[in-house]
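May I ask for a protein sequence together with how it folds?
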Amino acid sequence: MHNNRINIQSDEKVAIIGLGYVGISLALAFAKKKSVIGFDIQANKVAMLQNHIDPNHEFDTNAFQNIDIQFSSNWMDMFGAAYYIVAVPTPVNGERIPNLAPLLQACKTIAAVMSKGCMVIFESTVYPGCTEEDCIPLIENESGLKAGIDFLYGYSPERINPGDAQHTLEQVVKVVAGCNEIAEKKIAELYSLIVKAGIHIAPNIKTAEAAKIIENTQRDLNIGLMNELSMIFDKMQLNTKAVLAAAATKWNFMPFTPGLVGGHCIGVDPYYLTYKAAKLGYNSQIITAARMINDGMGKYIADKIIQHLIVAVDIIKNAKVLVMGATFKENVADIRNAKIADVVFALKQLNICVHVTDPRADNAALQKEYGYSLITQPDKDYDVVVIAVPHKEYENLDNNYFASITLPHALIVDVKGVFINQIHSRKYWSL
């Protein structure tokens, strides 16, 4: 193991459960101030971190220097921690119902290692009430300890934005809430060690949970509106980006753009809210409508491609399509809930040859998750090229490049419109 241990004066160990984007950021930040144990059930991920390699490519090797941290896939290494911070994923299943299995397993693990006087903090996105209705009773039952008496607990929603070097953990206000005033104060003090932007204390845990879930729901709604406008303007033969640029000259116009809404936050979190609302007898209308629009954008893009191929090629199953970008958004390696997969599947159903390339995605992970692989080098005879994810590696591509890899009748589908007014020798379409 390659753990850098230095003599930091602290008798309070912090255990981080779940080493994804959130967990790694927390672990590295806290390890500058306290002794940290970073735990994850994936041994291969832990091995990379032990060798100072971030699986998500967000931190370089320097971030692992001069800190007090141990990475482990052995839950017993978390014995004796003062704080247990839960940062595991909270996905939805195939029916878009919250899948709490990773969260509840984390609770059972904590119950097995915790002792009296410790603090349990949840950062995973959940529906309002989940911490106190689902998590804490499970911990109490498994541990035999009483919440609020034997241990304290709270909630502090994560606000990590992968690929964003500006809005980092340290630079974004941290919302915290505790089960009582003592817990609230201790949690605020803990996060004050690493967050420079300040602490916002919510009045209770359910409020903090609700605040987190509406942050992404609001963004989902606004992107859903942009996507619907894009479909309307397409029928009017108007360029959506040009319309939005004109509207943005008004001082209070909000700068959202159309696109594929995937990933593990915006494309998932609203379902937690609508699920809980339905349990309480309210069927969401606006949130559900935005989700339907955004979840359907992959099929919409695929249909536009197929319409072009019907006209452009003699036999559609002989067509070749190149998809550039396989991650859920630009400049990240994360492929979870990458909605471009919907486009790939729709085309493959028609036996169309689809090549996928991405400078950041892991080929083995992509094969395991979606069943298709990356190519190493594009061909020269594509009928359609889809610029799905505008990674930095694609910034310097130009009209000549796209002409060099396509046939004269080809269509360039620029999902986010980054090459607008730059493609002249091929047909061009964007949302």
About this structure: The chain has two domains: 14-202, 296-430. The radius of gyration is 24 Å. Residues 176 and 227 are 34 Å apart (CA to CA). The first helix runs from residue 21 to 30.
